[in-house]
Amino acid sequence: MSPFRTVCLRIAPLCGRSLAAVLFRHFGHRDAKFSHLSQSAGGRSQALLYRSHGEPSSVVRLENVDLPSVGVKDVLVRVMAAPINPSDINMIQGTYSILPDLPAVGGNEGVAQVVEVGPQVKSLKPGDWVIPKDAGLGTWRTEAVLSEDDVISLPTDIPLLSAATLGVNPCTAFRMLTDFEDLKPGDSVIQNAANSGVGQAVIQIAASRGLKTINIVRDRTEFPALSDRLKAIGASHVITEETLRRPEMKELFKMCPRPKLALNGVGGKSATELLRHLQVGGSLVTYGGMAKQPVTVPVSALIFKDVKLRGFWVTKWKKDHSYDGRKFRVMLDELCSLIHEGKLTPPTCTEVPLQDYHRALDAAMQPFTSTKHVLVM
Ligand SMILES: NC(=O)c1ccc[n+]([C@@H]2O[C@H](COP(=O)([O-])OP(=O)(O)OC[C@H]3O[C@@H](n4cnc5c(N)ncnc54)[C@H](OP(=O)(O)O)[C@@H]3O)[C@@H](O)[C@H]2O)c1
Questions:
Q1: Which atom of ligand 1 is nearest to the CA of 317?
Q2: 168 lines ligand 1 (CB under 6 A)
Q3: I need a labelling partner for 241 at 20 to 30 A (CA). Which of 14, 29, 64, 78 fits?
Q4: Closest residue (by CA) to atom 31 of ligand 1?
């Protein structure tokens, strides 16, 4: 069992058998879509396919696939941009909690433009921008025929990179800042991996709500420039993992209240250090395991601080709210309002043409890059 799965076990309800069964059915449905991709001829599309699990640069290939004709409730979309996220890499490696049947098209998020709609499509029209409602759609391709129900529209007047990167990381940040603690202006939140896509969204959404953020990043020679960049988007404090362990943290808490909420995308020692700084009764929410190390909880944090340990998975949240899309719509509308107001910008991105996918996949797996690689079609 991989260390990543060890982290997952700590949020056991999310990895339980019943959810796996639900997701298996979901992917079964999607693979039906994939198999009809290769059946009939409504045109051709290029897609980044993997036929076996392994290192992305070895197993992912750009292939031509036939498009089916557009069904009565289907839409033909042209994908414009799709990021490479850590979960996309883990899916290809075969180490993620949910895996599609193979062959599969890579990519779980991205923005596409509707080109054609079937006669019974009610919610979309040509020209609309759409993003996937759920994980597993296979966004690394040029065109796709999808069910109207698989996508949700976005305004077309937001930046392309904002749209391409909105559906996963900003939604995760939004929910974690909303659903776990009753945060009021002036309260503080501490997070590691603060330069990640999630981290940059946390900084900006928190700032828009008047919350202070204590942002932890790994040390690097460009730390001053990174710190300035995160402060420019609203970070209150940016410190290194090493500083987090030092006594001078006491000085920081003279300027800023101890956090009610800690957001952990790393695991290992970093998560333990976040716990040490939480307020009594505060919550540590784990959403990622980049260090591939389990979360170790000091006994004192449980006894003397009664901290709450929680997990969050946006895929499960979307699944839980799929019966009634209103909550998802409301969240996207709020996020788009922040974008319109200039309060939520996309993460720092490097755009790479689809044909250069090898370069993009390799670069996306390098540490200390502080940039999100986005495939542009
Ligand atoms: N649970 C959910 O619903 C959910 C939703 C979205 C994302 N996620 C997870 O959240 C995490 C971040 O995703 P993202 O798209 O925001 O990432 P990203 O933009 O690709 O950034 C990756 C981040 O991970 C850090 N990192 C990489 N390796 C590390 C290590 N060994 N130790 C400590 N930090 C390390 C990087 O820091 P450096 O610059 O120092 O390399 C960077 O801050 C991933 O694990 C992803 O799967 C979970």
A1: 3
A2: yes
A3: 14
A4: 291
Topology of domain 169-315, per CATH?
Rossmann fold (3.40.50)
Superfamily assignment of 10-165+347-376 in CATH? Answer: Medium-chain alcohol dehydrogenases, catalytic domain (3.90.180.10)
Residue 323 among the catalytic residues: no
pLDDT tens digits, residue range 171-212? 999 999 999 999 999 999 999 999 999 999 999 999 999 999
Task: Please list the alpha-helical segments (H only) found in the chain.
Answer: 3-9, 17-37, 56-59, 86-93, 160-164, 169-179, 197-208, 223-232, 241-244, 249-255, 268-277, 299-303, 314-320, 326-340, 357-364
277 Cα–ligand 1 center, Å = 21
Q: Compute, in angstroms, the gap from residue 34 CA to the centroid of ligand 1.
A: 29
Binning pLDDT at 50, 70 and 90, where does residue 33 land?
very low
Mutate to test the pocket of ligand 1, among 96, 196, 350 (most ligand atoms within 8 A of CB): 196
Residue 105 token pair: 């098209």
Which of 329, 327, 364, 15 shows the shortest CA–CA distance to 179? 327
Test site for ligand 1: of 14, 96, 198, most ligand atoms within 8 A of the Cβ: 198
pTM: 0.91
pLDDT above 70: percentage of residues in the chain: 89
- Residue of minimum CA distance from atom 45 in ligand 1: 288
